[in-house]
Write a structure and sequence with these properties.
Helix content is 45%, strand content 15%. It is an alpha/beta fold. Strand 29, helix 24 and strand 30 form a beta-alpha-beta unit. Helix 17 packs across helix 18.
């Protein structure tokens, strides 16, 4: 077969979209995009997960960055949320029986704020009505009536006691220490000096009467204290009755409004009892209390903390938490400084994303959740228990428990959608036993889709929608076709379109910019080309440096002539945002020996595992092709010349094999042809990646050193469908200045490179025949080297008894007992 039989025509090198098949003049004529482009499987999985109500059917959207994961998840979630009923409001209120356990109240959508406002107005009304009730004449009359009888009885008891004492010659005198009895003489009190001057018998008599009277005084004082206690009780009952009468009607009105919510009415009952119990705080309408401190219009314990509230017809919530720290996810309990310390109450309970998304959907970035301390474990615990508990991190790890609030957990009904790479998904699935139970739906996003007519139309609709939403200029039909060609190049397959829409969107934005620089109202093809050229120019500094070294001769790359045991390989340099192909000389040296194929990169510890496997495959090919009848007598070393970093991948294995065959067959390889492609043990050339960049890279090197018309690249035939070369390279092929050949096996490739047919080992004037002859020469050389080796002389030292006698021959071993025959199946 001739070398021309393997050469590709120009129309094989680039498959362009026909602008006439798109059916529009500009993308402004196209409708808005509905759903997603090219991700039918992922969209179906997301739809299933959103509609599945059972526990554990949370979603993990797995796919590379730029495939539209966020847009697809958010659009589907918002559409599903619009079909859902609006979730209820949640509030925290003071727990009067147990202040350390704030109570969670559930109310219909929008009613949380209304309830908080009603309570605030209720307490404000109590602050107005309470002073009026206690300052009214009615209260004073009732107070006087309730205490009048008791005071009269107390006065009567004290009068009777005084009369009884006077009848005995004493008087009752009130002192700061209480009631004391004082003896009288002629109706006047006796001083202590006068008492000491009385006769002994008289003093004794007076003391005895005083003792008797003191008992009566104590009895009277006890009766008086009981009357005072009764007075206080009556006043307490009166104050409670007045206070309840002042605020009871207001509380009943609010309770009637919320009578369908038992927890709310129970809380209002507790609140009314507390207001009555703390009526002293409401009896003054002044803005400051007796100590000069401002009085709260509504004390904190009566206020309602509306944790989450929603509109009545807004549908379910879709919360995308971009900073999923522990507190942002699960809420927190804040503190305020007071007198050198810190205090908290139920009003300082703050919600997290799970509270805001309760009843709806929560969208999280997997990597962000995993990197935030304690966030992943807390999220799993919340999904497992289906309730949201607010507690600070310090409370879980402090060695000494501190007195703080323990808010009542809120029941949770939320669908969590995590977005991440496939690697994160598989790592979590295999190393976290709870992950598979909590995230049962995997929505996998693909990197490409079929490039049929419908897909091209969808691609155009995406362009129109993106330009419309971001206020970019519309694209002409030709420009849209050029973007579709760019999508094929990104996919490295003319039958596919890339679904990495982030890169396509960047191209649209940059093309719109350049169109604006030219004051154009529509993006044309030249604007697309300008955007691609400028993007490449911004990123190709290292590439230019490499080709500068090639042009100067610092990096030795031969693009003309022929050499034995040397071939131009092609490496792909991927810098993340830019990739290019770099030619690299691959050389091989062959000699007689038993070392086989020696990988110099491996010996220098620069060879990756895949590259080392590829070199081992070369040994398998050589053994299978030339070592069937006799073992190979070959030592061959292969190396990437002027390579100072790790070598990985198998795309150079065919080039390495060509170099070895060239050295064995003494057949020079055309240096104007570069080679890429992997090979298997049977000599089949296999598909590789980055074919476009590699071909363009060698074309650039040949262009620098001068195009001769005999240069080109040898690629696997399976890579023909991945070719979307730059127009400049295609033009060079059309003009005969450059060539691209496609082969299926090593025999075809070595024929293209050397001009000598591969043939078979039995044909002497072919590559395989020459290799067989050379290997036979190596084997004879090794055999001759063994025959010419001098015999080994054993010297016996003086005084020794002579050479040791030969060992007796080892008796042959008895053959092992054969195993019993297998039992035939029934």
């Amino acid at each position: 077969m001739s070398i021309h039989d393997f050469e590709l025509k120009p129309d094989h090198l680039r498959d362009c979209c026909d602008p006439g098949s798109l059916g529009f003049e500009t993308t402004a004529d196209l409708p808005e995009l509905e759903g997603n482009v090219g991700q039918g499987r992922a969209m179906a999985a997301i739809g299933f997960g959103l509609d599945m109500a059972m526990k554990g059917y949370n979603i993990f959207a797995a796919g590379p960055t730029g495939t539209g994961r966020n847009f697809a998840v958010l659009s589907q979630a918002r559409a599903a949320a619009a079909r859902q009923p609006t979730p209820d409001d949640w509030c925290y209120v003071y727990n009067f029986p147990d202040p350390t356990r704030p109570i969670a109240l559930r109310l219909p959508p929008g009613m949380g704020r209304e309830f908080a406002k009603d309570v605030e107005e209720l307490i404000a009304t109590c602050r107005q009505e309470m002073p009026r009730a206690f300052e009214s004449e009615t209260y004073e009359d009732r107070k006087e009536k309730e205490t009048g009888d008791v005071q009269a009885e107390r006065t009567r008891i004290l009068q009777e006691l005084d009369q009884e004492a006077r009848s005995e010659g004493f008087m009752i005198q009130a002192t700061p220490m209480g009631l004391v009895t004082v003896p009288l003489a002629e109706g006047k009190p006796i001083s202590r000096e006068q008492f000491e001057q009385l006769p002994e018998e008289k003093r004794t008599e007076i003391n005895e009467k005083m003792e008797q009277l003191r008992g009566r005084v104590q009895e009277a004082l006890g009766q008086a204290r009981q009357l005072e206690k009764e007075t206080r009780r009556r006043l307490e009952d009166l104050d409670r009755e007045v206070a309840m009468a002042a605020v009871g009607d207001r509380f009943r009105e609010v309770k009637e409004k919320y009578q369908d919510y038992p927890l709310v009415t129970r809380h209002l009952d507790s609140m009314s009892e507390d207001v009555v119990a703390h009526r002293a705080d409401f009896r003054s309408s002044e803005a400051f209390d007796s100590d000069g401190r401002p009085v709260e219009r509504v004390p904190s314990r009566y206020r309602v903390n509306v944790l989450v509230t929603r509109e009545g017809d807004g549908g379910a919530a879709v919360v995308a938490e971009n900073s999923p720290t522990y507190y942002n996810l699960l809420g927190r309990l804040e503190y305020r400084p007071v007198a050198g310390g810190a205090v908290t109450d139920h009003m300082l309970i703050k919600p997290g994303a799970v509270h805001r998304a309760n009843g709806g959907y929560l969208v999280l970035q997997a990597m962000e959740v995993l990197l935030a301390p304690f966030a992943w474990d807390a999220l799993k615990r919340t999904l497992r228990s289906q309730e949201a508990t607010i507690e600070n991190i310090g409370e879980q790890w402090t060695p000494v428990p501190a007195a703080t609030l323990r808010p009542e957990p809120i029941p949770l009904d939320v669908k969590v959608i995590m977005i991440g790479s496939p690697l994160i998904y598989f790592l979590l699935y295999h190393y976290d036993e709870e992950f598979g139970k909590l995230f049962k739906v995997r929505a996998e996003f693909d990197v490409d889709m079929d490039a049929d007519e419908e897909a091209c139309q969808s691609y155009s609709v995406f362009m129109a929608t993106y330009c419309r939403r971001h206020e970019l200029r519309p694209l002409s039909r030709d420009a849209a076709a050029r973007v579709i060609d760019y999508g094929k190049r990104l996919a490295e397959d003319t039958g596919k379109l890339s679904t990495r829409f982030a890169q396509v969107a960047d191209l649209l934005a940059e093309a719109s910019f350049w169109a604006g620089q030219g004051e154009a109202s529509v993006i044309e093809t030249d604007h697309i080309e300008k955007a691609l050229e400028q993007k490449e120019y911004r990123a190709e500094r290292l590439e230019e440096r490499v080709y500068e070294l090639i042009e100067r001769g610092d990096l030795l790359v031969d693009v003309a002539g022929a050499k034995t045991g040397q071939v131009n390989g092609l490496a792909l340099m991927d810098l993340g945002d830019h990739a290019f192909g770099r030619p690299s000389r691959i050389t091989a040296q062959v000699s007689p020996g038993r070392a086989g194929v020696v990988n110099i990169e491996r010996e220098a510890r620069l060879s990756g595992q895949i590259h080392q496997k590829a070199v081992m495959i070369l040994s398998g090919y050589l053994t299978g092709t030339y070592g069937v009848e006799a073992p190979l007598s070959l030592s061959a070393s292969i190396a990437f010349e002027q390579s100072y970093g790790p070598v990985e991948g198998d795309s150079a294995s065919s080039a390495e094999l060509y170099a070895i065959l060239s050295g064995l067959a003494r057949a020079p390889i055309c240096q104007g042809i570069a080679v890429t492609g992997s090979v298997d043990q049977h000599g089949n050339v296999q598909v590789i990646g980055g074919a476009n960049h590699k071909i363009e890279g060698f074309y650039a090197a040949c262009k620098l050193k001068g195009l001769t018309g005999e240069q080109g690249v040898l690629i696997p035939r399976q890579n023909v469908k991945s070719l979307m070369l730059k127009p400049e390279v295609v033009t060079a092929v059309e003009e005969g200045k450059f060539h691209v050949w496609a082969v299926s096996n090593v025999d075809e490739g070595i024929g293209v490179l050397t001009g000598v047919p591969a043939g078979s080992p039995d044909e002497p004037d072919t590559i395989h025949g020459r290799v067989k002859t050379r290997l036979k020469e190596f084997s004879e050389a090794l055999r001759g080297a063994r025959d010419e080796r001098p015999p080994t002389v054993i010297e016996v030292p003086p005084g020794a008894s002579g050479p040791r006698p030969p060992r007796p021959p080892t008796p042959p071993r008895e053959p092992p007992t054969p195993p019993p025959p297998p039992i035939p199946p029934p």
